[in-house]
Amino acid sequence: MLRECIRHEHLAKIILQHPVFYNFFQYVEVSTFDIASDAFSTFKELITKHKALCAEFLETNYDKFFESYQNLLNSENYVTRRQSLKLLGELLLDRHNFAIMTRYISNPDNLKLMMNMLKEKSRSIQFEAFHVFKVFVANPNKPKAIAEILLRNREKLVEFLTNFHTDRTEDEQFNDEKAYLIKQIQDMKA
Known about the structure:
The protein is an all-alpha fold. The chain has two domains: 1-76, no CATH class; 105-190. The chain is 73% helix and 0% strand. It has helices spanning 2-6, 9-17, 24-27, 33-48, 51-60, 62-73, 78-93, 98-104, 108-117, 123-138, 144-152, 154-162, 172-186. The longest helix is centred in the first third of the chain and has 16 residues, at 33-48. The radius of gyration is 17 Å and the shape is globular.
């Protein structure tokens, strides 16, 4: 029923602006899979359905939102981590969220988190982390702190990416993006 309400921008705005919105960060982590999954679907709808409204909400509430979102990315629950990482990639790559993306990829802690998630045991989490990591590397205006981390880890990153998901031979876009990232990292100047 709540998802039906969210289809109306005015009602979605009321929910986003109400402190109860932040309860979703707990709801998506409950141990009952059906409830957590339903809560995540509603949460995702709330922050993606009405693009301009969501972008405005995320810009205005950036610190509070991403502080809570960080807990989802660090969750012990595999499904929560994977869904949150995938949603983060979608949020950052949505053109309406350019200001949010720019701010997110300017934070060295976020880059470090993605680099660690690239090494997760789960190949699915690695793959979703790749889609966020590529935004850091592809940024032509990298802040000094981000560039320093990438430069400091250049050889390891190139080797890691060269051997990353090599079995995805049919995924042309992934392989093109991976080759692009490797070249970008190799071509970085100290």
